[in-house]
Amino acid sequence: MVKRVILACLALAFIIPHVAIAQATAANKPVSPRIRVIMDNDFSGDPDGLFALTHLMLSQSVDVRGIIGSHLKAGDGFDPSKTQADNAAKKATELLSILKMTGRVPVVAGSNTGMLNDTTPVKSAAVDMIINEASRTDTQLPLYVVCGAGLTEIASAVLTNPAIAGKLTLVWIGGPEYADLALPPPNYSNPEYNLNIDIAAARAVFNHSQLRLWQVPRNAYRQALLPYSQLLLKIKPHGEAGKYLTNVIEGLMTRIQQWHLNIGETYVLGDSPLVLLTALQSSFEADPSSSEYTLKNCPKINAQGGYDYNAGGRNIRVYTRLDINLMFNDFFAKLELNAR
């Protein structure tokens, strides 16, 4: 009898810790946030920002701290109104509703206009959001501000509170090609589209700030080509979000034809690298290890929106090649899983 009691106790002593470990493992998710992100984008403009936002919101390694709707160039064909930032915030809110994530992340509008010059910040709830998040002392998770349009809000935030420059990394989709790295495409726009939204803000970031900057210029973001065939097979069938994103692109393709333009069968989802370079960093020694960049002295942006060499400029990353397969395959899988 005594022997049986002893054996039973030994068995319990062996089983209980293993049960506790199993329960703890079940309670913990395999993927949890390891970075913080604020996304700033012109969601009422080019619909590529809506794809990037969907991808970001479905990424479990990211704690999305805020979404900023930003303005376009005045009179832009995508949204010629004077309430572009407000409209962008409404578009982001609409998408969150479709994803059934209403209220999960604060959405604010930035300024509806650009900066008057490269030293005078604008005021907005978006600027306050960036400053408040960058100033937090209750978390060790690194902060990324990812911008897929102009730089009005981040430039204004750093001009308002220069101390935050060392507390975040700015990832920006924008700027023309560097002459020593790539040639511009045929019939290219000058200045580059995103830089031209607010040249004064770009000058504030490049010329005056000490922000850690990862730049994805035009030759890099144009690599993010989504074929129409994949839109129909990999996106459209997967839930309300897939239908919504497909309708947005197909609607744009139809409208463009009215202006006698033929964009072929691919669409540049140029803002999606914002997710690739943050959520999809390597497991150990975290970094966007499957994409390639070069370090350059940060140039000065001149009044015309071009680069002027700056020998004393801080080092910035300029991305030259992006892992488009990883980026799109991850997006397709997350969209399908979410639809289930």
UniProtKB/TrEMBL annotation:
Annotated Gene Ontology cellular component terms: cytosol
Query: What UniProt keywords apply to this chain's record, in alphabetical order?
Result: Glycosidase, Hydrolase, Signal
**A GO biological-process term:** purine nucleoside catabolic process
Question: A Pfam family matched by this chain, by name?
Answer: IU_nuc_hydro
Annotated signal peptide: 1-22
Query: Molecular function (GO) terms listed?
Result: purine nucleosidase activity
Name all Inosine/uridine-preferring nucleoside hydrolase domain ranges. Answer: 37-281
Q: What is the protein name for this chain? A: Nucleoside hydrolase
